[in-house]
Design goal:
The protein is built from six helices and no strands. It has about 150 residues and is mainly alpha-helical. Helix 1 runs antiparallel to helix 6 (about 70-90) and helix 3 runs antiparallel to helix 6 (about 70-90). About 15% of the residues are buried. This is DUF7575 domain-containing protein.
Length: about 150
């Protein structure tokens, strides 16, 4: 399931950088990569001329006439977004909290759990209830006094 999620997030990020991070609930990263993508398009592509084009084929001709550096910049942003979404979906880098007050964490994805739920609301892994030794016989035998 994790690989399928990683491939899906990477595919969405190739289609639109930041979309794969939305699936992973990485809101700030989605905003960062989406903004970076649109800023790159706005800076390097002739948006006004493309908007004024009469047909889609004219628009594609204008986009194809953009220099190689601009195209490589857009490809670089898209590639980095896809790789980041893939690694995030696979759990790299592992998120560790050094807080001693942190609650229980998911054994599958490592994120903090809601104690009221029987599953992880981040990765939907079903959690087994903790079986404590509450019912164990803890009474000690009293010594016999004579």
């Amino acid at each position: 399931m994790t690989w399928l999620r990683a491939i899906f997030a990477a595919g969405l990020s190739v289609f639109l950088p930041g979309a794969g991070h939305l699936v992973l609930r990485e809101w700030l990263r989605a905003l960062l990569f989406g903004s970076l993508y649109f800023a790159t398009v706005w800076l390097f592509f002739p948006i006004e001329e493309m908007a004024a084009a009469g047909s889609t084929s004219e628009m594609m001709d204008l986009a194809a006439d953009v220099d190689m550096l601009s195209q490589l910049t857009l490809i670089f942003v898209t590639l980095i977004a896809a790789l980041d979404a893939t690694f995030r979906a696979l759990g790299y880098p592992p998120e560790s909290t050094d807080d001693g007050d942190a609650g229980p964490s998911c054994p599958h994805c490592g994120k903090e759990l809601d104690e009221d739920l029987e599953f992880c609301h981040w990765c939907t892994t079903r959690l087994e209830p903790e079986t404590g030794d509450e019912n164990a016989d803890t009474t000690e035998e009293e010594p016999v006094r004579s």
